[in-house]
Design a protein that fits this description.
- By secondary structure, the protein is an alpha/beta fold.
- It contains 17 helices and 29 strands.
- Strands 1, 2, 3, 4, 5, 14, 15, 16 and 17 form a 9-stranded mixed β-sheet that branches. Strands 18, 19, 20, 21, 22, 23, 24, 25 and 29 form a 9-stranded mixed β-sheet that branches. It has a 5-stranded parallel β-sheet with strand order 6-7-8-9-10, with helices on both faces.
- A hairpin with a 2-residue loop joins strand 2 and strand 3 (54-59).
- The chain starts with 9 loop residues before the first helix and ends with a strand.
Amino acid sequence: MNENRFRWRNRQLREHAAIIDGKLAPTKVITNATYLNVYMKQWMEGNIWIDNDRIVYVGEAMPDKTDGTEMIDASESYIVPGYIEPHSHPFQLYNPQSLGLYAAQTGTTTLINDNLMWLFLLDEKKAFSLLEEFVELPCSMFWWGRYDSQSVLQETDQEEFQEKVVPWLNHDAVIQGGELTSWPEVLKGDDQTLYWMQETTRLRKPVEGHLPGASERTLTKMKLLGVDSDHEAISADEVLRRLALGYNVGLRNSSIRPDLYGMLKELVDRGHNQFDHFMMTTDGSTPGFYEQGIMDHCVKLALEAGVPTIDAYLMASYQAARHFGIEHRVGSIAPGRTAHLNFLHSPEEPSPHSVLAKGEWMKRDNETYTVEKPIDFPSFGVTPLQIDWDLNEEDLQFSMPLGMNMKSSVIMQPYALSSDASREELPEGNDESFLMLLDREGEWRVNTVLKGFTNRLGALISSYSNTGDIVLLGKNKQDMKIAFNRMKEIGGGIVLVHDGDIIYEMPLKLGGVMSDEKMETVIQKEKELREHLRSFGYRHEDPVYTLLFLSSVHLPYIRITPVGILDVKKKEVLFPAIMR
């Protein structure tokens, strides 16, 4: 039986009903509970019966049988539904398992996840088998179905990518289409993507847009073409424009765009009091950002901005569940729902002191529980990166007159080179460095110069990138060779080299993109990376996002992609990739 379609088998359903009839005992009973009823929009009092991973009763009664039942007195707590992260990118150095377990301990017990890296790393059979493994985690894991790669791929890679779109959309664990970063192409006549959007709607799954800066006219046209939600608003005016047109609006508090508090504060100050079509998201933040929490921190910011208490909690739970059509499974404390419960000291303190996820204790009295549910990623083909080719002198030739100038962590503008890029080392003091994008199979390369990343670092290499290809940059070609060879030795990852010495490395043993370590370890390693890069002149907000988005064509103005240096607006290849 498909676990994503039918969470509970017939036998289990009969047992749940038998508990109500007094024939069987529940596994847990929470007594004296003050809980948030999302349908009544009020705090209520009663008892909550749980059988393994499901809520079977909420009300004033107690079960007739309690043999072996764990009794939990909640008289000192307020209980809210487990939080939902509606827009997760679970590949930002961490992996979906490590993120999911960490998130559950903070009260975020359901995640709606990007599938992009599975599209690059795995065939459908292995990917879909892997999705079944995530069902066994104590958190609830759902997925998106991407329409586009966020970059421009080589022809054969693009064809392979497109062949995977429809099977993913049809999978039961996939509950939305998107995010739609290629919307400009749809507006210009991309009927293939428009067909996929229609298929998503036919499957009764929402379509998520990615519409930064979109005008009222553009938002209206995208609504006509099938987009249901968007999370790219960065001001109160943009939020209200989307809401007025019928969008469900994701409000973002991420490491690259911490806009949530400011937008909500302005809305509240204007007297806005309608929050039923708002969700909140951390939008795939980099690891260190999650030290402060995940959705619990979003609720905290909403409360501080003046959002009514119950609305703040609904934005982090029920509103997302309703939008995705999974409110029968998650997002509320009611009979039949998955037993995701957060125990709070007070409604003003959204970080839970105790968490039940699928009826399992993930945290109790502020003590986190270690949950051992290992996923054997290599058995599904998610293995260390194996590179059977070498970097040679010819690869390290930089002759083009055009470079990429960092205006922010992720915005790149073209500029005319000021340094002699044919030399072995670029001078310290200026902020130019060699930059390469290398095919992980070694078939092609793209070379240019990047301005604004470092003023003296010898080399950085990263097999973590938007397309899974290899980013290599630095001021010294010999250091770049050392970094490349070390990255090969550790099976993929991020390596820093300076003056011939390896000064930092972070192995990414899962496909060269994700760490197999626990979230806490990944957080510390990413903080070390940031500190190193700041000491070498990195002055922007988020270096991890810089590495990720160098090849992402949904951002302006110029990108280094698998087909070459691309003018994003004109969709024109300025300098093509070189075959090796």
